[in-house]
Amino acid sequence: MYAQHLTCIQLAQSSVYASLATSVGFTLLLALSFSLLRPYNSLVYAPKLKVADEQHAPPPMGKGIFAWIHPIIQTKEQDLIPLIGLDATVFLRILRMCRNIFLALTIVGCGILIPVNLFTAAKSGDYSKIGFVAKVTPVNTFGKANWGMTICAWLFNVIVAGFLWWNYRVIVRLRRQYYESPEYQSGLHARTLMVRSLFVSRFALLTKNRLTIFRRNGDQIKALEN
């Protein structure tokens, strides 16, 4: 049973290495493919360069392989709203929030759990026979050392709630700035049309699923209700 337990730990460690290599490999492949295809397919990756006016055109990018990194770092959030709209800007902020949440959880979790798991694994007799991945996992953590996971769980909740609170305040401020901007105030999509003084004699509405007859200037237009 003891030998079988060590074999299971080694297999689990190998699977972790395989998953990590696969994820990193696909990530690098996608990033490299995008960097190579983007300069020669502007119609696909930058269609606004051809159809948008000067005010709504995206920032210029060179033809270099990694020329897209500089605009991503330098472009501010307030500059994105007139370029891509408020909804897309909020979507990008949510993605950035999720990235920062996972980074914070990784730092806190690894900073607390890895030392606890290493300390408890060193106290066991299998420390020299198991790999590094098994040492940093809670496979050998028992007893009072499990309080480390409880503390991490509470800290994770506080971190997630803090990020949600902070980003919600920023999104409310962005919406307020957008609604007060001259582009929104003068845009036709921000207008509301109110129609008044409609006479009942101008149209006759029959029962549901029947013909609706509209009368206007002596003409009759028949349309089926949905």
What does it look like?
By secondary structure, the chain is mainly alpha-helical. The chain has two domains: 75 residues, no CATH class; 112 residues, no CATH class. Helix content is 62%, strand content 7%. It is built from nine helices and three strands, in the order αααααααααβββ. The protein has a three-stranded antiparallel sheet with strand order 1-2-3, with no helix packed on it. A hairpin with a 5-residue loop joins strand 1 and strand 2. It starts with a helix and ends with a strand.
Q: What integer value in Å does the Rg equal?
A: 30 Å
| Share of β-strand residues | 5-15%
Q: Which spans of ≥5 residues are poorly predicted at pLDDT below 50? A: 201-226
Secondary structure: number of strands: 3
Order of helices and strands: HHHHHHHHHEEE
Dominant shape: elongated
Termini, distance in Å?
A: 70 Å
Q: What is the structural class?
A: mainly alpha
Count the domains. 2
Number of helices: 9
Widest beta sheet: strand line-up: 1-2-3
Q: Major sheet: size, sense and barrel closure? A: 3 strands, antiparallel
Helix content, binned percent: 55-70%
Mean pLDDT, all residues: 77
